């Protein structure tokens, strides 16, 4: 049974975690290793063969450091807004939460790993203090535990967020995972779990928050995190159910965008390409040929870094994209257009 509990972080209060709830892990690719020692970054992406781009350093597992730009278009501000980010305890979800917080939003991190969510909230709050020591207002960041594939768990988590924040203006659905099995060998129970988190989880969170937005008559923005895998077939790794789940997420965003447009709710999708998260980097260290194959297919000649999604998520979550609805923003270095 879902236990209602959240962690509220302010400048005068820090808290420690009590329980660790494991979340599904990415299973390393186990297929045949390709021999591609002769390939170069971007070689097979129809770009100039004389141009190569070296990978940037992998960011640390903590917050992304950078110069805070004070002069920018006002519509990009998230001041006064509350953003819910599922899967925000780590990886891409963590970095996108940071982007929203640095843009002024209060944030509610929802994750199966409650201890991880608490640690992420503490870390993001501390980072904001470090880069904005004289800020007039400090964003409120809360941590919540939920299984996004479970309807009652999602309802309880959203209700808890509303009790704490009073309203919700934006949703980012970053909870999800992938596994690599040949289609004929994929365990059915694992496929059901993957679909439950990636597709059902997106649907359940979106519907529950849409009910609030419709009742409040406030409108809002939803950003579903899909994948370029929803538009193309990745090689060499076999992952048919994952690809199908992300195609479903992309079209779910389009369908809900049309259905909820009259309520002022915009629904868009971000489809990342290959991203160098800490987990992906570890896998590629063990399979350098796989990384060479992937980068050879990317026109920009490198994999993406998590912070490459920061601008995209703020754009779609903020008023800067008020007339953008039902779009799929691909952040993939040009992979899907070659």
From TrEMBL:
Keywords: NADP, Oxidoreductase. SUPFAM superfamilies: NAD(P)-binding Rossmann-fold domains (SSF51735). Residues 40-64 are annotated as: Disordered. Pfam families: adh_short_C2. Belongs to the short-chain dehydrogenases/reductases (SDR) family. This is D-arabinitol 2-dehydrogenase.
């Amino acid at each position: 049974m879902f236990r209602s509990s959240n962690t509220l972080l302010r400048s005068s209060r820090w808290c420690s975690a009590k329980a660790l709830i494991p979340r599904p892990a990415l299973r390393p690719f186990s297929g045949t290793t390709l021999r591609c020692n002769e390939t170069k970054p971007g070689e097979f992406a129809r770009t100039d063969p004389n141009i190569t781009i070296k990978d940037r350093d992998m960011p640390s597992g903590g917050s992304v450091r950078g110069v805070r730009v004070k002069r920018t278009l006002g519509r990009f501000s998230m001041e006064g807004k509350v953003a819910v980010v599922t899967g925000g305890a780590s990886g891409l979800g963590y970095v996108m939460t940071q982007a929203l917080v640095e843009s002024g939003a209060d944030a509610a991190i929802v994750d199966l790993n409650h201890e991880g969510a608490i640690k992420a909230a503490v870390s993001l709050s501390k980072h904001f203090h470090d880069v904005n020591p004289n800020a007039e207002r400090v964003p409120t960041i809360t941590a919540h535990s939920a299984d996004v594939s479970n309807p009652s768990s999602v309802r309880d988590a959203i209700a808890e967020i509303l009790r704490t924040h009073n309203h919700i203006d934006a949703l980012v659905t970053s909870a999800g995972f992938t596994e690599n099995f040949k289609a004929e060998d994929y365990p059915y129970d694992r496929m059901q779990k993957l679909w439950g988190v990636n597709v059902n989880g997106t649907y359940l969170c979106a519907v529950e928050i849409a009910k609030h937005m419709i009742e409040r008559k406030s409108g809002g923005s939803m950003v579903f995190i899909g994948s370029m895998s929803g538009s193309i077939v990745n090689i060499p790794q076999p992952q048919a159910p994952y690809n199908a789940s992300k195609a479903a997420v992309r079209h779910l965003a389009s369908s809900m965008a049309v259905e909820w447009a009259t309520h002022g709710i915009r629904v868009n999708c971000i489809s990342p390409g290959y991203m160098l998260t800490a987990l992906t980097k570890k896998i590629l260290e063990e399979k350098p040929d796989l990384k060479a194959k992937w980068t050879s297919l990317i026109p920009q000649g490198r994999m993406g870094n998590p912070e490459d999604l920061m601008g995209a998520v703020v754009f779609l979550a903020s008023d800067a994209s008020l007339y953008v609805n039902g779009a799929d923003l691909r952040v993939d270095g040009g992979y899907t257009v070659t």
